[in-house]
Design brief:
Elements: H1 7-16
This protein binds calcium ion.
């Protein structure tokens, strides 16, 4: 469904960077320092 990937999809991907789970943890903050950056393996 490539047609599903428009501006809304891009916004959703950006939102992942700020998304926190019900415990307030950032699921992509792999080193748990509260910031998503290159130090996190998923973004390195
Ligand atoms: Ca981090």
């Amino acid at each position: 469904m490539l047609s599903d990937w428009g501006p809304e999809g891009a916004t959703g991907l950006q939102a992942l960077g700020e998304a926190a789970d019900e415990d307030g943890n950032l699921p992509f903050d792999t080193n748990s320092d509260g910031v998503l950056d290159a130090n996190d393996t998923s973004f390195g």
